[in-house]
Amino acid sequence: MVYNDKRLMVLFEDSPIAVYTCDAEGYITFFNEAAAKLWGRRPQINQDLWCGSSKVYYPDGTAMPLKASPMAMALHSSKPLNGVEMIIERPDRTQHSVLVYPRPIFDADDVLIGGHNTVIDITSQKKSEANQAMLASIITSSDDAIISKNLQGIITSWNDTATQMFGYTPEEVIGKSIKLLIPEDRHSEEDDILYRISNDERVRHYETERLTKAGKLIKISLTISPIKNQNGTIIGASKIARNITEEIAIRLKLKKYMNELEALNKHKDDFMNLASHELKTPLTSAKAYLQLLDRFIEKDHRGYEFVKRAVVSISRLEKLVNDLLDISKIKTGQLQYNMEMLNFNEIIKNSMDSVKHLSNTHSIVLKNMTDVTLYGDRVRLEQVLNNFLSNAIKYSPNADRIEIEANREADMLVVSVKDFGIGIPQDSIDRLGERYYRVEDNSSEFPGLGVGLFVSAEILSRHNGKLMIESEVNKGSTFKFSLPIVKGS
Ligand code: ADP
């Protein structure tokens, strides 16, 4: 073949494989359309040297001088080169990996007259090789055992963790049935899994047991997915297995602790119930005697002040015992409600009276009232308000004013109790409705059991009401609740 034989060149013109020729000095004498497309440019015939790309690189990315290109080497050495890998760069700076096959051409007298080169684009092959390598390294380094098998259940691949988990090397298991790992009594499981996989189903986090080479049973969590070939046909399954033997032991331990905790909690609830009942009876009679004494004692009697203080203390004690009793009742669903139509203004007045009676440090300012009818339990709603007012006093030791107001907002009555006290950190507000929860920073400074708000929240929720708390540390808190108003009132 002569390098400039136009008739022969025509044969290559439409070839899908990039082909070009050079003369003996390396000037390009012909290139086909596939070559122009691959280079992204059309070199100048008899002017461009060695290669249609003006920038070429070695496979490691370092620049390759054009005069050291494989075509130049083949012509200089008069020897063909086979499949030399290099990178060519297009004018738009995109790069392609290619394999080149430059060959010198001699005339009948064996004189070098030029060369031809075939250029094969291997970019996508290189990319998929890189992807393959990346996937392989992910599989190798995975902490989970990754195994593949065909639809007959024959193991086709096995990673390092599978070796560690089951004790078999890849050579020992590849080509063998996966049933090697399955205890006898679970063999039907594998048939079921294969059936599901062949129906394109995925099995996720399936907890089961498998056998190691040493005959030990281990608990594993399996995720099995179908493997498809390029046509989408299912040809096997991949299994990802995680050893959960320890996890299950921990779960069992946790369950045991939970059961123990629940039993302890129940003991505690039973004890609280019993204790508060036992406390209630003598307390009620002591209070009754004290109230009698309070009624009859003369103002100038030496014991007058003591009796007054004893009445306040015993009322506080009674509130605590009642709160504890309420908690037991809430737990057992025995908190009774006597529902009736009522005017909330009366509740506000009663509550203000009873709280004033307990404290003389704060003035309670009523900013607004509204005349609406509610359907609710008078005693329980008064209890909620009492709790908010007495907390407002308790948690604002350096203030002397509490504000209370009730406003109508659409079909709800919104009652708010505002204090100018210690406030509540934002992250504690959400936890306030929990039983026995007290804001840690001040739990030692202020007496209390952390049950009042829990009971209040329960009472409000039974009235279809809502509790809202706004607070800023060292500025004060506003405890609000809304209750539905009876239509037409
Ligand atoms: P107790 O006051 O008996 O601890 P509560 O259930 O009534 O129980 O209140 C729960 C917690 O909420 C209190 O311990 C306190 O930390 C916080 N708290 C309640 N009301 C106020 C308030 N007005 N200002 C600041 N903190 C409050």
Characterise this structure.
It is a single chain. The strands form 4 sheets. Strands 1, 2, 3, 4, 5, 6, 7 and 8 form an 8-stranded antiparallel sheet that branches. A 5-stranded antiparallel sheet has the order 10-9-13-12-11, with helices on both faces. The protein is elongated, with a radius of gyration of 44 Å. It has 13 helices and 20 strands. A hairpin with a 5-residue loop joins β11 and β12. The longest helix is centred in the middle third of the chain and has 52 residues. It has 489 residues and is α+β, with helices and mostly antiparallel strands. The site of adenosine-5'-diphosphate has 20 residues, from α11 and α13.
Runs in which pLDDT lies below 50 for 5 or more consecutive residues are none
From the spread of the alpha carbons, the general shape counts as elongated
Mean pLDDT equals 91
Ligand names: adenosine-5'-diphosphate
Itemize the secondary structure elements and their pairings:
Elements: H1 6-13, E1 18-23, E2 28-31, H2 33-39, E3 55-57, E4 63-64, H3 70-77, E5 84-89, E6 95-100, E7 103-106, E8 112-121, H4 123-141, E9 145-150, E10 155-158, H5 160-166, H6 170-173, H7 187-198, E11 203-211, E12 217-228, E13 234-243, H8 245-296, H9 304-331, E14 339-343, H10 344-358, E15 363-368, E16 373-377, H11 378-394, E17 401-409, E18 412-418, H12 426-429, H13 452-462, E19 466-472, E20 476-484
The chain binds adenosine-5'-diphosphate (ADP).
Residues 387, 391-392, 395, 419, 421-422, 424, 432, 438-439, 442, 448-454, 477 line the site of adenosine-5'-diphosphate (ADP).
